[in-house]
Each structure stands twice: as C-alpha cells, then as structure tokens.
Amino acid sequence: MNNTDLVVQHVSDQDVHSISKERLRLWLRLLQVNKIIENEIREFLRTEHDTTLPRFDVMAALYKMKKGAKMSELSQALMVSNGNVTGIIDRLVTEGLVIRAAIEGDRRSTRVQLTNAGKKRFEKQAAAHEAKVNELFSAVNYDDAAGIITRLDRLVHEKGE
C-alpha cells in the first residue's frame, strides 16, 4: 500500500471548534433571514391583499387538495391544531371562499374545499406572493439559489423530514 492508497485527514480541536461556531452562525443567520422575509410577506399580504399569512397558508393547502380535506387532514398538512384552523375556515366560509360538506358515513367530520371564488382569489394571491418572494430574493441568482437549496435539502434528508 502506498501513500496514495490511504489518505488520513487530521482535524484539530481548533478546526472542530471553528466549524461548530460557523454552523451556529449559519443557523442564526437562517433564523434572521426567515424572520425578515416572513415579516415582509405578512405585511405584503395584509396591506396588498387584506389577508393574513395563516389564511394564505390554509388556502394554499386547500388549493393543493383538489377534492378538499377533512379538518384533521388540513391541520396535519399545516402542522397546526384543529382549533387554529377552525377559526380561519369559519371566516373563509362566511366570505364564500370555502365550503363545508358532510362526509357520508362520518357524522363527526366535514370536508372543506375552496369554492370557485376561493380558487380565483388564491390564484391571484399566489401569483402576487411569488412575485414578492422573487423581489425579496432578487440579490440571489439562479445558480446560487439552486446551490443553497441543494445544500439545505441535504440537511432535510439527513434529519428524515
């Protein structure tokens, strides 16, 4: 066996400490960027579309669930409690953006689904939301965005999410 067959890399305690500190800085920066972007999106939805981020998220989930969903399925998809979703759904029903329908054979559950007006409203909001996110990330080019996503995907897959 020659030297090229076996490569031993030595990492000093100082290197491990530096890596650890840099990863901590990365986590804190991700939190900071997330907070900035989320606040911008919340304000944009409130002022430009007279809605909230939770309402937008509920409508987005229902838009993806073409045949609607039970409240428990919707809550699970959004990772929030049924109680959090119920109030939002109540208001969306009152506004004619969502309908509730009984589920045959299940007296305790109802299916909620976007109405045609709800779909149209969400499509308009979703297009504006995408444009706003694009604006907020305008300093990030395509290759950088793809690279960041690839690296973050590694973290997601390693943690089993």
Structural class: mainly alpha
Number of helices: 6
Overall mean pLDDT: 90
CATH class of the domain at 52-158: Mainly Alpha
**Helix percentage range:** 55-70%
Name of the CATH superfamily of the domain at 52-158: Winged helix-like DNA-binding domain superfamily/Winged helix DNA-binding domain
Q: What order do the helices and strands follow? A: HHEHHEEHH
Order of strands in the sheet with most strands: 1-3-2
Query: In what range is the share of β-strand residues?
Result: 5-15%
Sum up the overall morphology in one term: elongated
| Topology, number of strands | 3
| CATH architecture heading of the domain at 52-158 | Orthogonal Bundle
The largest pleated sheet is described as: 3 strands, antiparallel
Which stretches are poorly predicted, pLDDT < 50 over at least 5 residues?
A: none
The CATH topology of the domain at 52-158 is what? Arc Repressor Mutant, subunit A
The radius of gyration over CA amounts to: 22 Å
